[in-house]
Amino acid sequence: MFKRLITPVKSKSWFLFGPRQTGKSTLVKSLLKANDLYIDLLPQRDFLNYAKNPGRLREEVLGHLNRVQGIFTCVIDEIQKIPQLLDEIHELIESTGVHFILTGSSARKLRRGGANLLAGRAYTYNLFPLTFDELGNVFQLEKALISGCLPVLWKTDEEDSLEFLRSYTETYLKEEVAAEGLVRNIGPFSQFMDIAAANDGETVNFSNIARECGVSVKTVQQYYQILEDTFLAFRLPPWHRSARKRLVSHPRYYFFDPGVTNVLAHTFSEQLNSRVRGRRFEQFVISQAIAAIHYRRLDFQLYYWRTNHGSEIDLLICRGKDILAALEIKSQRNIVREDLKGARSFHKDYPEVPVFILGIDQKERLLYDNIIVLCWDEFLRNNLVGL
Fold it and tell me: Mapped to the 3 state alphabet, what secondary structure does 149-175 carry?
């Protein structure tokens, strides 16, 4: 129903990662031709057959190759469930030329279990919730801030957003975490999820969260890593002139979708209060920027900037050691000079870097030298690529 902006190469194998319900299976099925092969590891019977005998994959691919008499694509859905299949896939790519598309909603077992990641024989892509450009004319900012951008919630108005998102978070805890054995005790992790969502986009204090959950600081750090590995959250490190300082400072984490955040943080409402709305708008714009950067394959790195005195910039877009742009995200429609404390403080330290104040329904205007106010979607659509 929605044309996705991701453009994987057609002449090579690739991984496609992303949270559940972002449309990975729908996307890859739309790319398949009549002679291609589709294998889903979610059904228990199929999972057990391949888990007991990974060599079965090789037998089936060779049998299919014999039938179609030509190169084809083999899709394996939820590859993280049986990482051992990657050894078979590696050999099949080398010996047959068959292309593989491998989807997954978790990379934890692959990255941390010594799995064969095909050593450059497969590219890696990520799929995100729908972007405002993918939604096109049906996009509504308020709906995105409340219910998020998972595709199922935009296909029809009949879906109850709150009930769907409640079920989604419960399914994640049950299937992705408990079933995969990512944590030993689901109770503290469930409590951690609520606390992490309530602190979405704030500088993380691991000690405080550990105290609230009744677990160690190391465990909280492991919990955040699980959120990253399962694509439910992304990490935004702080910017410092010293690379060493970046490693010891506290990061920020954002959940991948405002709707999921609202349910976990118990802030889901038909009308968000101004404080929550501002935070969800910041989360939304940053996640849309990440998706745009990834889909366009731009070589950017992202950070936030904050001084000891509390002045801050929500997002720095960098290439290596160079800061290309600073973004301050404001949900109010009336942006005045008094709102620019962080921008002016940053501009004093980095006068050569353009600072963009991204608001809603803004006409582009220059407030100070190199401090520009404009609409958030205009920046993402027109300014991002030109940095």
Answer: CCCHHHHCCCCCHHHHHHHHHHHHHHH
